[in-house]
Automatic annotation (TrEMBL):
<dbReference type="InterPro" id="IPR041698">
    <property type="entry name" value="Methyltransf_25"/>
</dbReference>
<dbReference type="Pfam" id="PF13649">
    <property type="entry name" value="Methyltransf_25"/>
</dbReference>
<dbReference type="GO" id="GO:0008168">
    <property type="term" value="F:methyltransferase activity"/>
</dbReference>
<feature type="domain" description="Methyltransferase">
    <location>
        <begin position="53"/>
        <end position="144"/>
    </location>
</feature>
<protein>
    <submittedName>
        <fullName>Class I SAM-dependent methyltransferase</fullName>
    </submittedName>
</protein>
<dbReference type="GO" id="GO:0032259">
    <property type="term" value="P:methylation"/>
</dbReference>
<keyword id="KW-0949">S-adenosyl-L-methionine</keyword>
<dbReference type="InterPro" id="IPR029063">
    <property type="entry name" value="SAM-dependent_MTases_sf"/>
</dbReference>
<keyword id="KW-0808">Transferase</keyword>
<keyword id="KW-0489">Methyltransferase</keyword>
Length: 293
């Protein structure tokens, strides 16, 4: 595995510590939860047999493997993520499935891509973690051939995603120091405002930009709910350092707060996201950016 990192050190440290290991642990739940997002990306016409595809922020590899199945033996799919634990898990999954997907442990913001190496670039909730998103998308444009398609899904705002923030809101009286999710900062809500994503794509030289809201019905098994919220997100991080009595109180309180989403044996919620698409311009009209240096 190749492991060159750029200046995005806070995110690299974050995803190579407790958080990365937690996502590996909860991988089956997250794959089920985000399957509708993955299906939407696979509907992108450019994801077709024989194409070369880059999956940015691939995590444990579910989308990368799905794309590899679609592009077939004459195509190529590469997953990239800064998290060594998740990349190792993704590679193991590919090996077990006998799929020709490749994985790179690196920061897409600074990685030295081969110029014009990909026909398509996709991401399922993986492009919101750059400390310099314009630089990152310039670098991705550098990796794309002329007229290559870019398609990614990112979260909309917290007010439209109450499921996402339920653990923090419910546990705040018991854990006053729980970190808040910050809109616009590197993290899940970096592109919460449509104007931010549009500005980043424009300034990084992408063309034919289209960003539209999508509301996706997601679900997973109720038996996995406590495992999910005690491992993932700000609550999952702070619970690892909480005394057992407080931890038990928090779990009970947060589980009750999720009751509106529990329907029989399932947890169901709506993921309010942006579906963003763009194309790399022709080389003759392409602006020179940092990613081209």
């Amino acid at each position: 595995m190749d492991t060159p990192y750029g200046a995005n050190s806070a995110q690299v440290e974050h995803w190579n510590g407790m958080t990365g290991r937690a996502w590996v642990d909860v991988q089956p739940v997250l794959d089920q939860m985000f399957a509708p997002l993955e299906d939407l990306l696979l509907e992108t016409p450019a994801v077709a047999a024989g194409h070369r595809v880059l999956d940015v922020g691939c995590g444990t590899g579910s989308t990368t493997l799905a794309v590899a199945r679609k592009v077939g033996e004459h195509g190529r799919c590469v997953g990239m993520d800064v998290s060594e634990p998740m990349i190792a898990a993704a590679q193991a999954r590919a090996d077990r499935a006998g799929l020709p997907a490749a994985f790179i442990c690196a920061d897409a913001q600074a990685y030295g891509f081969e110029p014009a190496g990909f026909d398509v670039i996709v991401s399922r909730l993986g492009v919101m973690f750059f400390d310099n998103p314009v630089r990152a998308f310039e670098n991705l444009r550098h990796a794309a051939r002329e007229k290559a398609a870019l398609s990614f899904i990112a979260w909309r705002g917290p007010e439209e995603n109450p499921f996402l923030t339920t653990p923090e809101r419910a546990s705040a009286p018991l854990l006053p120091d729980i970190p808040a999710r910050r809109v616009g900062a590197p993290g899940p809500l970096a592109f919460a405002e449509e104007a931010v994503g549009r500005r980043v794509l424009q300034q990084s030289g992408w063309a034919e930009i289209e960003i539209r809201p999508v509301d996706l019905a997601c679900s997973f098994l109720e038996k996995d709910l406590i495992h999910y919220f005690t491992r993932i997100g700000p609550l999952g991080q702070i619970l690892q350092e909480t005394d057992e009595r407080t931890r038990a109180q928090v779990i009970e309180t947060v589980r009750t707060a999720f009751d509106p989403y529990v329907k029989g044996a399932e947890v169901r919620f709506t993921a309010a996201c942006w579906m963003a698409g763009a194309r790399a311009p022709s080389r003759s009209t392409m602006p020179k950016g940092k990613g081209d240096a």
